[in-house]
């Protein structure tokens, strides 16, 4: 029998037999998404253009980028934050952030006038996400025969994927609805 004594926060002496221990089985997992690792990549569309974020204009678009512009990296070098999941069939949960000047911005989705809009807001991606979040996307292979390219499904609206849409001279980042059997090249993103 152990007879060790401990002091509680009030300074009272406690005996080992007065303590209560909780044993939590190892197989139980937290429902929260917990950040597991971070990848640093550029995001390319089917036309080999890089995704560039311009927070001052409130826009993210795929653009042709020179080597010199790529070296400066302003708004185009992304951190892809991978989270541990208990539901791997949905895809790898990820969040995106990007550094512009000396500020960090994270990607999120918001409903505006009945339409889902991609936004980049100043701030950091959380280490843990306790429940649904407008910053999480499920990373999935683009097609079974194209394992080096991906599509990213918005976690809060099944069938909605990151894509680009031509708007004037821009190939703007958007959320786009996809039917189950369709293959849409505007959703193809290479890392």
UniProtKB/TrEMBL annotation:
GO molecular function: cytokine activity
Subcellular compartments: Cytoplasm; Secreted
Family indicated by similarity: Belongs to the IL-1 family.
GO biological process: cellular response to lipopolysaccharide; cytokine-mediated signaling pathway; immune response; inflammatory response; positive regulation of cytokine production
GO CC entries: cytoplasm; extracellular space
Keyword annotations from UniProtKB, A to Z: Cytokine, Cytoplasm, Secreted
Identification of the protein by name: Interleukin-18
InterPro entries membership: IL-18, IL-1_fam, IL1/FGF
Family matches, as PANTHER family: INTERLEUKIN-1 FAMILY MEMBER, INTERLEUKIN-18
Gene3D superfamilies hit by this protein: 2.80.10.50
Subunit description: Forms a ternary complex with ligand-binding receptor subunit IL18R1 and signaling receptor subunit IL18RAP at the plasma membrane. Mature IL18 first binds to IL18R1 forming a low affinity binary complex, which then interacts with IL18RAP to form a high affinity ternary complex that signals inside the cell. Interacts with cargo receptor TMED10; the interaction mediates the translocation from the cytoplasm into the ERGIC (endoplasmic reticulum-Golgi intermediate compartment) and thereby secretion.
Pfam families given in the database record: IL1
Keyword Disulfide bond among UniProt keywords: no
């Amino acid at each position: 029998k152990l007879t060790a004594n401990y002091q509680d926060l009030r300074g009272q002496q406690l005996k080992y037999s007065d303590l209560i221990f909780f044993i939590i089985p190892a197989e139980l997992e937290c429902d929260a998404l917990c950040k597991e690792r971070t990848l640093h990549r550029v995001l390319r569309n089917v036309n080999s253009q890089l995704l560039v974020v311009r927070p001052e204009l409130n826009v993210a678009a795929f653009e042709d980028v020179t080597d010199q512009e790529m070296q400066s990296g302003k708004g185009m070098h992304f951190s892809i934050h991978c989270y541990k999941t208990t539901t791997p069939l949905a895809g790898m949960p990820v969040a995106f952030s990007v550094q512009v000047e000396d500020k960090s911005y994270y990607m999120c989705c918001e409903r505006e006038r009945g339409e889902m809009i991609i936004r980049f807001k100043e701030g950091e991606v959380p280490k843990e996400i306790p429940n649904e979040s407008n910053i999480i996307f499920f990373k999935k292979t683009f097609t079974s025969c194209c394992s080096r390219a991906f599509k990213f499904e918005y976690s809060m609206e099944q069938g909605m994927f990151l894509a680009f849409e031509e708007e004037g001279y821009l190939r703007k980042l958007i959320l786009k609805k996809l039917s189950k059997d369709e293959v849409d090249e505007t959703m193809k993103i290479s890392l």
